Amino acid sequence: MADRLDNVRAVRAKATVSCLVAGVATACSLLLPWFHVGGPPRSTLEVIAAAGALDVIEGRTRALVVAAWTVVPVSVALALFAAAARRARLAGGLVAGSCSLVVGIACLLALTRPGLLAWGAVVAVSCAIVAVSTGIVSMVVDR
After folding, report:
1. What is the mean pLDDT, run by run of 10 residues, along the chain of 143 residues?
2. Do 24 and 130 contact (CB within 8 A), yes or no?
């Protein structure tokens, strides 16, 4: 029984570390070029800032978009604190939840505007998928 418990702890620890690394990579990938919009590729933050400056998005929509992209780095930072406090399930849940947002939005963009996405979106989605899957593992592995 003690061997099984040690194995479970080892799996959870590895999944949590993988989840946190992939979560940090996902948050950093928001700064990579995501869009081909007429000129050089633009990051998500540049596109949001430009859309706000041009009044393409305003009011509640702008606040929602900014909040959605702010959730990812903030929740990854909170997950790092949770992991430091030995709360693997909380850390996994924070990263999995926020990174699933990145996967969902990128898939929606790929379906609606397939030629719009640049290589940064592929990196972000790849990291986010790893973060979500390892986050789920860190949450559901038995004690």
Report:
1. 76 90 92 81 76 67 74 93 91 92 84 81 92 90 63
2. no
Which three-class secondary structure state does DSSP give residue 56?
coil
Give the N- to C-terminal CA distance of the chain in Å, as an integer. Answer: 12
Domains of the chain, residue spans = 2-31+60-111+123-140
Q: Name residue 11's amino acid.
A: V
Contact 108, 75 (CB under 8 A): no
DSSP 8-class letter at 43? E
Q: Rounded to whole angstroms, how far apart are CA atoms 139 and 143?
A: 10
CB 8 within 8 A of CB 142: yes
Amino acid at 1: M
Partner residues linked to 42 by β-bridges: 35
Task: Check: CB of residue 32 under 8 Å from CB of residue 120.
Answer: yes
pTM listed for this prediction? 0.83
Query: In a 10 Å sphere around its CB, with 0-12 CB exposed, 13-18 middle and 19+ buried, how is residue 82 labelled?
Result: buried
